[in-house]
Design goal:
The chain is an all-alpha fold. The chain is built from nine helices and no strands.
Length: 216
């Protein structure tokens, strides 16, 4: 397998070398993951602060979050084909719930006196979220981002097995068709290594933030 790994880093297979397929997967992952964080974190913070928004969004969210990301594959294939849109939708479906839930929990457990003081000072809504809720809930948010990254990366690989024409998952499907067990195993190792790197980076960020906030 080590020999096949070295070969794939230099010679194209299924339209690209192993680094090219990994780069394609990472590009899809980053777009879907950042989109999930950009929507989920502010929405979760706002839901934790606003009872009205919480009551409106929670029933819809609870209905959608139990749909497995892989269940979105037929819909993504029909609407987006094998372009970048389909995998991004599936990554978003996997990464979005942890972003929202942890941001919501972080906002809900903020000291009520802090919120009351900010409201008494007439802090507007956008500043309340950016300057009060976000800093206080940051450790919880980063923990959610770490969980979200793992689910998003797993969702991406599942999507690439079906609705992609590049990426590590696509490479593995083509290797299956070519009866190349070594190539499939190389793809699995690559998936694991990239996942570990992503998790270590987020774990380091989480540890630093906890120390900054005086948490163990």
């Amino acid at each position: 397998m080590a020999e096949r790994f070295a070969t794939l880093t230099e010679r194209p297979f299924a339209g690209g070398t192993l680094p090219a397929h990994v780069a394609s997967s990472l590009q899809r992952f980053m777009v879907g993951y950042l989109l999930a964080a950009a929507v989920g974190v502010p929405l979760g913070l706002t839901m934790g602060w606003s009872r009205l928004l919480d009551d409106i969004v929670t029933p819809i969210f609870d209905g959608l979050r139990f749909i497995a990301p892989i269940a979105w594959v037929p819909f993504a294939a029909l609407w987006f084909g094998t372009g970048i849109g389909g995998p991004i939708l599936i990554i978003f479906a996997g990464a979005f719930p942890p972003c929202l839930i942890n941001a919501y929990r972080g906002a809900r457990y903020i000291d009520a006196r802090l919120l009351e003081a900010a409201e008494m000072l007439g802090t507007p809504g956008y500043r309340m979220i950016a300057e009060v809720l976000l800093p206080a809930a940051l450790p919880s948010i980063v923990a959610g981002l770490r969980i979200s990254a793992g689910l998003g990366w797993q969702s991406l690989v599942g999507a690439e097995l079906i609705v992609a024409s590049t990426g590590v998952g696509y490479m593995m499907v083509q290797a299956q068709g070519a009866v190349s067990t070594a190539t499939v195993m190389v793809g699995m190792v690559a998936i694991g290594l990239v996942g570990v790197i992503i998790d270590v980076a987020l774990r380091t960020l989480e540890t630093r933030l906890r120390r900054h906030h005086g948490q163990s």
